[in-house]
Automatic annotation (TrEMBL):
Classification via PANTHER family: BNAC02G09200D PROTEIN (PTHR33710), DNASE I-LIKE SUPERFAMILY PROTEIN (PTHR33710:SF77)
Coiled coil: none
SUPFAM superfamilies cross-referenced by the UniProt entry: DNase I-like
Signal peptide residue numbers: none
Gene3D superfamilies: Endonuclease/exonuclease/phosphatase
Official protein name in the record: Endonuclease/exonuclease/phosphatase domain-containing protein
């Protein structure tokens, strides 16, 4: 994780599949963010769901704004699979859905494609919604206009997610440095958002 000095970040917990931090933006209340990179193995993913439930209880995360973002490697509804043959709930779907219900988490309002992963096999294409940005109700109280954007997958088989909290950080502390040359940043911007001549890239 990378952040500016003006943002306070405190590590609360980490494991092979998750990283949980307490984040404080200037002029705002703190919130909790958990980054997820779930295992390809279903048994290990079950361990992750149990780990998240334990985190929720240990840190009383149902009482503070909490976000979870990343690759969960599991859909929660058969509509999140591109194949028509996947048309019923599996044990794994129900397992994750029940976990999210217990934690009071749901998808942040988002724009972009439903399917965030593809196998990139033209002869046998499969797409799924494996990546999510999840929040509880307290996040909406803190950032009522927050939105997530799933962008085109340029270099990966997953779509990157951009979160807009619609929160204005005081200008005296706002500065973003990107590790891209200006021409590379410009090409990426055009690829993702089109050629908007009046747009500015900061």
């Amino acid at each position: 994780m990378i952040w500016k000095d003006s943002v306070s970040v405190k590590l609360l917990s980490q494991s092979r599949q998750s990283l949980t931090c307490e984040i404080k933006l200037p002029g705002s209340s703190l919130f909790i963010y958990t980054a997820i990179y779930a295992s390809n193995e279903s048994a290990e993913r079950t361990d992750l769901w149990i780990e998240l439930l334990n985190l929720c209880q240990s840190f009383a995360l149902s009482t503070v704004p909490w976000m979870i973002g990343g690759d969960l490697n599991q859909i929660i509804h058969y509509d999140e699979h591109s194949l028509a043959s996947v048309n019923s709930f599996s044990k794994r779907m129900v397992e994750l859905k029940d976990c999210l219900l217990q934690m009071g988490l749901f998808d942040m309002r988002f724009q972009g494609p439903l399917f965030t992963w593809t196998n990139r096999q033209p002869d046998d294409p499969i797409a799924k919604k494996l990546d999510r940005l999840l929040i509880n109700n307290l996040v909406l109280n803190l950032f009522p206009n927050c939105t997530s954007f799933f962008l085109p997958a340029l270099f990966s088989d997953h779509s990157p997610c951009l979160i807009d909290l619609s929160y204005k950080i005081p200008s005296s502390v706002w500065s973003l440095k990107l590790g891209l040359a200006p021409e590379a940043l410009s090409r990426t911007s055009v690829d993702c958002f089109g050629n908007r001549k009046k747009s500015r890239v900061f």
